Structure formats: structure tokens, C-alpha cells
Amino acid sequence: MLILILAAVIGLYFAIRYLLLKHALGELNRELTDIRHDIGRNQILHLPVPDRELERLTESINSTLEEVRRERVDYEKREKEFQKQIENISHDLRTPLTVILGYLKWNRRFREDWEHSERMEESLETIERNARKMERLVAQFYEYSHLNVLENKFELQEVDAGRILRESLADNSLILEKACLKVKCELPECAVAVWGNAEGLERIFSNLFQNAGRYACSFLHIYMEKEAGWARIFFANDTENLKAEGVSELFERFYKKDWSRSRDGSGLGLTIARTLAERMEGRLTAEAEAMEVFEESGGDEATAGNRKTFLRFILTLRLT
Fold this sequence. Notes:
Elements: H1 2-37, H2 52-109, H3 120-149, E1 157-160, H4 161-171, H5 173-178, E2 182-186, E3 193-196, H6 198-215, E4 219-227, E5 230-239, H7 269-279, E6 283-296, E7 302-318
Helix pairs in contact: 2-3, 3-7, 4-6, 6-7
């Protein structure tokens, strides 16, 4: 008799336990369905019945939900950034295109008087200038996308960074002259052998020179240091309307704020330069600090002028 009573009690316990677990699974399923319908809400699963294995399962599901929410937030952030980038690209391309179409419309309207029009040459030069601007923008967009596609085809070898830098300076001297910059270049006469890619290194230097030509105010100082197996190449210049805390944004894709909005650029040059540096197992960084500028004031006394920023790009490459 005692055995039958004991068996009945055990059977009742397991029956109740089974019903409770079934109820718990039903509640978990209901909560999970509610969460699935609105994954954005910060909800978690609650276990109505204590059970060690179900607690582990619930914790695992809650951890997965948290990861899904983080991924969702990151995706929405990337999507907003992508939409903003598309807007920037559209604006950059639409502006010169509008000028071109406007002048073409003007020329068509007055085509009968072309031979006698004093504005004919000026309008054709404007059309050509804006067409070439569009060409440069499209070329940079293509170059950036091409970098991502050919990531595994970037060959590294020993190259002379000093020679490539001097050649790039000569190639971009006209840009720096047009910007009226005082250029000071201090590089060693001997070869500076680094681990890299000649074409990629030339592109980095060219982008840095073009950036200086657009945004530097009065000078560009180029120099090099060697330390603990690394070569550090510095591009230092003064610039306007750039705060030190905004330096990290310079390398973002299509970054163009008030300090560069009116300049002829796509906002991709520094992004491409940093990507190339990283492909060469190096890095490209920037740092800035406020500087007080003094300007001549008619007499011998100097008066305080506009506050400017001392900006320095640092390209770090591994020595061979």
C-alpha cells in the first residue's frame, strides 16, 4: 500500500511538473511572438516557473535578442549614413551638371549670335571646367569602390618612400603654387625603404597634396622621422574653421562640413588615403590644435587675426 501511495505521489508530482513546464513553454512562446512582432522594444523573456534548463534556454534567447537589437540599431545607423552619402553624391554631381545644362541652354538660345558673342568663350570654358569636375568626382567614386573589390590583389613589396614622395611633390607643385602655399620639404637624401605598394603610396601622397591645396591657408611643411622600425611622414599645414575634436571625422566617407563645403572635392580623398595606408599594414592619422595668427595692420604693430588650426597628417609605414 505504501508503495502505491508513494508511486501516486511521484506520478502526481511529475504530472504537475509537466503541466507547469508546458504552461511555461506556452508563456515563453507567447512572449517571443510578441517580441518578434515588435523587435525594437527592449523586451526580454521571463520564466514563470523556476527550472534550471529552461533558465539557461531563456538566458540564451535573451542574449540572442540583445544581439539582434544591436545589429538592428547598427543597420539603421548604416542605412541613415548611406542615405546621407547618396544625398552628398547627388549634390556633388548635380551642381556641375546644373551649370553645364544652364550654359548649354543659354548657348542654344543665342546660337545664331555665337560668332559675335563675347560670352561664347567664357561659357565654353565654364562648361568644360564643370564637366571635368564631374569627371574627377566619378573617378574618385570609382576608385573607392575599386579599392574594396580588389582588397586581396594589393601586392606589397619594398619601395622607396622618399623617392615617391619627392616625385609626387613635383607632380603636384602646380596645385600648391595656385594655392599660394609656402612649401617646406625636409626629407633625407638616402632611400627610405618601406613595406608598401608604389602606386598606392603615390596615391596617398597625391591625395594629401590635393587636400593641402584645397584647405591649407599659407604653408605646408613635409618632414619625416624614423623610430623603432617605422617611418613617420608628416604633412603639416594651417587651416580655418576646423575644431580639434572634429579631426576624427576627416577620414569619414564623403565628409564635407562648413570648412570644406565650398571647395572642389568629393570628401573621399582622405578616406581613400587611409584605406590604402591600412592595406600597406600602416596607418594614416591626423591631429590638430588651435593656433593664434597675427596679421600686419598697416603699421609696424601686429594685431591678433583670425584663430586658425594647425593640422598635421601622419603617415606611418613599416621600414624594411
